[in-house]
Structures are given as structure tokens and as C-alpha cells.
Design brief:
about 50% helix; five-stranded parallel beta sheet; alpha/beta
Length: about 400
């Protein structure tokens, strides 16, 4: 696009800025305007996405037809289908007349669907059909109606993430995204920030008949390095506040800092992109996060193994204590207990597998072939029939205790 043509567009729509990203956006908008392709404008809240659909419509063959801008996020879910596609009389309470809806009224014109990522899934299915066939059915109706509407959509939602979470239809995304336009955030527009401040300050001075505020060099640097989470909208609000509230007309960095929010999130310094630099890549951040997660996972597994080993050693100690707490009758002869050495637990799986030892092997390892029944009876008697406490005293799990009670016929 020629520089003169680009400047004419900026003057016509009061667009301020000379950064390459903004110029590219306007260039794409003017190239796609003569077509009927759907356009999806993506960008953060407050970057000025609403200007681009107007540029597209005014430079298209539909410029003499109607143009409607609809904020999909502001219409209640229960009425949005009726607003977009119309309804027939009596289709719901309050439908006292037929309504053509926006798609009916804007026939031959352009519809700008702002915040399209907020549309309910049912409405998304209706919108997809209109985009593919130009047909729709009003709410409560049976007659198919046709419309010829150019769709320009915009969103500040991460559509790909919404698709993965099941909140947005993938087929609708590709239908809307015939021509994608990425609006740059204010923090990446460099010197445009100072130009916009100057414009907003001049507007306030003319509107309220006051002297215009100007920035000194320190204030300009603070303005350039601020993160601007609210983008152009936030810059305009701050400029208006300074114009009204500041007694000084020359704004220093100290004065400016009083009007910029001081919370940590909003005052985080932003990276300023210069010519020749590409977009910021988050590969390094992802790699760091993955590394941290893997280290945490390894630490958790190590802790689980150590806890399992300590638990087994504690169970062995409790088991040895329980056999000496209650002296056995002298008249009874018992086999010599086999000394058991705690076996180290190699992994969490080994600790879990201990619960599934074959009954015969477990009885042998604990040396309860002959005295098991009597020990169980005494443990239950000392704990007044509380099986959980009896299992803890014997140093065995609840599952093992129940299995042995059943084996000795004590589970009645």
C-alpha cells in the first residue's frame, strides 16, 4: 500500500501510530475489503479492534448497505439466538411480534460480531450454518430464510485453548478465520504510545478549554516501559485523569507514576520491540516450567518411596512389640519365631504389592501358622473387638486382619 493511501485511511478513522504491526493490519484490511471472505480479528481487550471492521465495510462493495456491530458477550444466553436470527410471534414469553433478527435486517450488509468467543455452543452451530449456506431458521419458526451477510468477528479469547476445552467449535473457527488479523498490544507499539498520549491530551484540552499537558523525557520513558494491560483504553483514561487532576501541565515521571496503578501485575515492565525484532517467544518459559514440573514429580516419587520404606520398618517394629506385650501361657509350646529383617522397598509399586502376598506365604513370613488364631483372639480381646486397633497392634494391615479372621473362622 502506498504511504499516502495509508495516511488517508488513518486520518479518516482517526488512527494514530506508525508502527509496522499497525500498518500491516490496515494493509490486510484494505486488501480483504473488496471480497466477501470472513475475517477474524484477534487481540487483547482495549487495542481498538472495533475500528478494523468499519474500515473493511466502508471500503467494500457493501459500503452503501447496513452495518451492525454486536457485542456477543453482552447479550444474555437465553435471548442471543432471537437477537441474531429473529423469532416468530409466540415462540416464547414476550414474543408479541415477528422479528427478523440482525441477520435479517443486515441482509446485503456487514455484521461485526465482537467477542465471538463468548457465543454459546448452540448459537455457534446456527452461525456455522449461516456462514456455510446463508440459511437460518428463526427461533420458534419452521420456515428457512436466506440472508447475504458479510461476517467480521473479533475476540480477545484464546480460541485454540477454547477449542481444546470444548467451549468453541473448531469448524466454526476455521470458517471465521478465512482471513486472520492480529491487532498488536499497545506495549509493542513503541513510540505510538507517546503519540496517542499527545492526541488524547489535545482532545481534552480542546474539549474543556484548558492548557494541554505535555510529557518530559523521564515521563516518556516511564510511559514506554509500562506494561499497559488495558492497552489504548487504559492510556486514554490515564491521560484524561492527568489532564483534569494534575496542577502541573508539564508531566514528570514522578507525577505520572501517581496515576499509573502500583499493583505488581500492572506495573510489570514490558519488553519494547524495536525494528528487526520478531515477536516474543515463550519457548524458554515453557522449557523452564516443564523442567520444574519434572523435578517436582521426581521429588514426590522419592518422598513416596521413602515414606513407604519407613512405614514398613515401623510396621515391623510394632509387630515385634505386640508379640511381647502380652506374655503367652507357659503351658503352651510354640515354635521358635523366625527373625524377620525389614526388606527395603524399591518403589511405590513394591509397597503396594505387599498387600497382595499369597496368604500361605504371608502366614509363613509372620510365623503365625500355629499361634495366629490365639494372637488374633487376644488382640481383639484387648481392643474390645475393635479390628482396626487390633490390626495396628499386630502390625498388619486391615485387609490382612480380615483375611485371617475369615481363615480362622473368627469373622462371625
Amino acid at each position: 500500500m502506498k504511504t499516502s493511501e495509508l495516511q488517508n485511511i488513518k486520518q479518516r478513522y482517526n488512527i494514530v501510530g506508525n508502527c509496522d504491526a499497525l500498518n500491516h493490519v490496515l494493509d490486510v484490511a484494505l486488501q480483504v475489503a473488496p471480497t466477501d471472505l470472513s475475517v477474524l480479528i484477534v487481540g487483547e481487550s482495549g487495542v481498538g479492534k472495533e475500528i478494523i471492521p468499519r474500515v473493511i465495510h466502508d471500503n467494500s462493495p457493501r459500503r452503501r448497505e447496513k452495518y451492525f456491530a454486536i457485542n456477543c458477550g453482552s447479550i444474555p444466553e437465553g435471548t442471543i439466538d432471537s437477537e441474531l436470527f429473529g423469532h416468530v410471534k409466540g415462540s416464547y414469553t414476550g414474543a408479541i411480534n415477528d422479528s427478523p433478527g440482525y441477520f435479517g435486517v443486515a441482509n446485503k450488509g456487514t455484521l461485526f460480531l465482537d467477542e465471538v468467543g463468548e457465543l454459546p455452543l448452540a448459537t455457534q452451530a446456527r452461525l456455522l450454518r449461516v456462514l456455510e449456506t446463508g440459511e437460518y431458521i428463526p427461533v420458534g419458526g419452521t420456515e428457512i430464510r436466506k440472508t447475504d451477510v458479510r461476517i467480521v468477528a473479533a475476540t480477545n479469547v484464546n480460541i485454540r485453548q477454547a477449542i481444546s476445552e470444548g467451549r468453541f467449535r473448531e469448524d466454526l473457527y476455521y470458517r471465521l478465520n478465512s482471513i486472520p488479523i492480529q491487532m498488536p498490544p499497545l506495549r509493542e507499539r513503541g513510540e505510538d504510545i507517546v503519540l496517542l498520549f499527545r492526541l488524547f491530551a489535545l482532545q481534552m484540552a480542546e474539549k474543556y478549554k484548558m492548557d494541554r499537558v505535555v510529557l518530559d523525557e523521564g515521563a516518556k520513558q516511564l510511559l514506554l516501559h509500562y506494561k499497559w494491560p488495558g492497552n489504548v483504553r487504559q492510556l486514554k483514561n490515564i491521560t484524561e485523569q492527568i489532564s483534569i487532576l494534575s496542577p502541573e501541565r508539564t508531566i514528570t515521571a514522578e507525577v505520572l507514576s501517581q496515576f499509573i496503578p502500583q499493583d505488581q501485575e500492572s506495573t510489570q515492565l514490558a519488553t519494547i520491540h524495536r525494528e528487526g525484532n520478531g515477536d516474543h517467544s515463550f519457548e524458554n518459559e515453557r522449557e523452564i516450567l516443564y523442567k520444574i514440573l519434572f523435578e517436582l514429580r521426581g521429588n514426590v516419587n522419592d518422598m513416596r518411596r521413602e515414606v513407604s520404606a519407613l512405614k514398613k520398618q515401623l510396621d515391623d517394629v510394632q509387630s515385634s512389640k505386640s508379640t511381647t506385650v502380652e506374655p503367652l501361657p507357659a503351658s503352651t509350646t510354640y515354635p521358635t519365631p523366625i527373625t524377620q529383617h525389614p526388606t527395603p522397598v524399591a518403589s511405590v509399586e513394591d509397597a503396594i504389592a505387599e498387600e497382595y502376598i499369597e496368604p500361605a506365604q504371608e502366614l509363613e513370613s509372620l510365623n503365625l501358622n500355629d499361634m495366629g488364631k490365639q494372637m488374633l483372639e487376644k488382640a481383639l480381646e484387648r481392643n474390645h473387638g475393635n479390628r482396626k486397633k487390633a490390626a495396628q497392634e499386630l502390625g498388619i494391615s486391615d485387609r490382612t486382619l480380615y483375611r485371617r479372621l475369615k481363615q480362622y473362622g473368627l469373622d462371625q
